[in-house]
Specification:
about 130 residues; mainly alpha; Serine Threonine Protein Phosphatase 5, Tetratricopeptide repeat; 7 helices; about 75% helix; about 0% strand
């Protein structure tokens, strides 16, 4: 009875290992290779930020070495925060996306579209500015 259990255990890891490399290759080659990556990019195009964030999060788990997937995940988080009116959080997430992928033009544009940061300071500094 021990032999069938060993076969079942040894046959499962190769199936998982075989599915990981195509996700990594597809993520680096562009959206044309992997249906999950295409779906995630489609969610971005449709401006479904929360769904896109979750999709890119799942892709980033499958390919932890791919910085572009994490950059897109931070981009989606930033857009989601921006629409919710959390400008500081949106700015931080978009800057994280650009730190991972400086060529992500969508994040650059989204960062430029954010309203300027409000002046920081306490009551005294606000009084002295007037």
């Amino acid at each position: 009875m021990a032999a069938p259990a060993t076969r079942a255990v040894t046959s499962a890891p190769p199936a998982r290992a075989a599915s990981s490399p195509p996700a990594t290759r597809a993520a680096t080659s562009g959206p044309a290779g992997d249906p999950a990556l295409e779906a995630a990019h489609d969610l971005l195009r449709r401006r479904l930020w929360s769904d896109a964030r979750q999709a890119f999060h799942q892709l980033a788990i499958a390919a932890p070495g791919d910085k572009r997937l994490r950059a897109y995940m931070h981009y989606a988080r930033g857009r989601e925060a921006s629409e919710a009116g959390r400008g500081d959080e949106a700015r931080a997430e978009l800057q994280r996306a650009l730190a991972l992928d400086p060529e992500l033009t969508a994040a650059k544009r989204a960062l430029d579209d954010l309203p300027p940061e409000p002046p920081r300071g306490g009551l005294v500094s606000r009084l002295l500015r007037r």
